[in-house]
Amino acid sequence: MRRSTRPARALGVLGLLGALLLTGGSPAASAKPPPRDTAGPGTNHAIDDPFTSERTSWWRQDRFGMFIHFGAYSNLEGEYTRPDGTVCRNAEWIKRECAIPTAEYEKQAATFNPADFDAEAVVKAAKDAGQRYIVITSKHHDGYAMWPTKQNSWNLRDHSSFDPRRDLLAELKKAADAAGIKLGFYYSIWDWHDPDFADPATFPRYKKRMYAQLKELVDGYDPALLWFDGEWDADNPTNTWSRRDGADLQAYLHDLDPGLIVNNRVGKREVVDGDFGTPEQEIPDEPVAGQLWESCMTLNDHWGFAKYDTHWKSSTTVVRNLLDVASRGGNYLLNVGPDRRGRIPQPSVDRLREAGRWLGAHGQGGAVYGAGHTGLVADPSWGAVSRRGDTLYASVTSWPAAGSALHLTAKEAFKVTSARVLGSSQGVRVTPSGDGFDLTPSGAATGPVASVIRLTIEPPAASPPGTGTGLTARSWANDSFNGPPAVTTVDPTVNKSYRFDGSPDPRIPSDHFSTRWTGSIQPRTGGTYTFTTVSDDTVRLWIDGEPVIDSSTPHGPKADQGTVTLTAGHRHSIRIDYTEGTGEAHMKLLWAGPDQSLQVVPRSRLYAD
Question: What CATH number did the domain enclosing 529 receive?
């Protein structure tokens, strides 16, 4: 992982074609990325809508995962003694932050022997915690591979004291599969060890090996997810990873395995990169605009093992963080760092087990698994509220005094048909009050972590399913809508990711074009809707002739939002004007409403004119 101080980001300068020309050749067939220069106009890299696709369904349902930072740095257990006798402390960044000479770092790595790594024990710790997927570091910034890669000898099999007959990742994969837990791999783009990484003239050779390593991981271990890091601009060594590099890699990985889930650090952490965003050591105050998201956090103060770090989060903090994350539609990836022998510290195991006990008791896990942002109520000061179907889970961390009420502010009209406290026989009186409801429990809290009130609701009335087929799309071979359109089609959805090599049609160049979508949009339920556009370069949105989003100043990838009141079953006119100048081309239209979680507006709700 990266430190809290983040270097500024800038665009890289070397695309894949130039890279291959510099080396005078091409990667081996097994690792060759797609020929981006020949893909041509018309290529749309938006393979689906991650908010609704079957590909991401398990990830959206599971909500809680285990992160594992484990590598050659773990052998030092957080401390390096310099030649002058002074001690420098760090964990996974210890090689760089303590300025350990490469030869000396290699020497200590040769003694690394995680013989006590027990894949079944690791999986059990995750299972006991209620974590449903695991992401382990396959290669961190020090470049050390934790599997027997064929691309170099800087790996656990060839440069350690570990039993060369063992494959740590294969053992974990087998144990995870047996327990029904998904397995994913962290992979650092930034590499402090590979001599070809820092020089733009030799970087293509590094990228060739990186592609080959990733193919080894995908083909050999069938991961459900790849979690990238180290994409930012940096020095020592210089990191020239560009947005074009990220686009190439993302397309290559989806070609290898269309079912892969990939995080946004495959690119530059933009809203258009990968399938989900990655806030680090923080929980957003509200759902993230335009992208799925996952908050990654440490259980103490380090990602890797540091023997002196005993600043552990309590199980109460873990559960409450998870409840906040789920109520805002996110995932929670909580890290553990095994010691030099491969053992997860017992304080980590204990806290995880305690969190799992809470999730497993009285059906309280219903507030997390498969649940998400409500769209119906405001985030309360006394806890968190998540939703699964017609059920709200009010997780109360500040229980009211006897006879006092918890106020639930309603953003839209709905009815509460029943309420009960999970794990208790006490009743809950629900009374309409002001802008929402007062919930008055008749007894005490069920425990110190959080007490969950399960509310069965009757959501706003919905109109019948839509029968739309999409919007009329007119595209011009210029970015000013001049003259007659070059092509007119019906687009089922507005979900375009042309990246660097595409356009609406082979007759339209990949730079300097424009598209106007028109027709009508029909919501199932009435109320206030938030529309989100994800675009690069400009976008304007009108509903019923009124401007909702005006982002007409050219910009890089970003999300814009606007709100409008819609009537259930009514077809509201819609117009979207989009222009592409140079570089990437993205345009997505999403919505969220009273009974609608954030998603790309589906074709059944869009009608061509």
Answer: 3.90.182.10
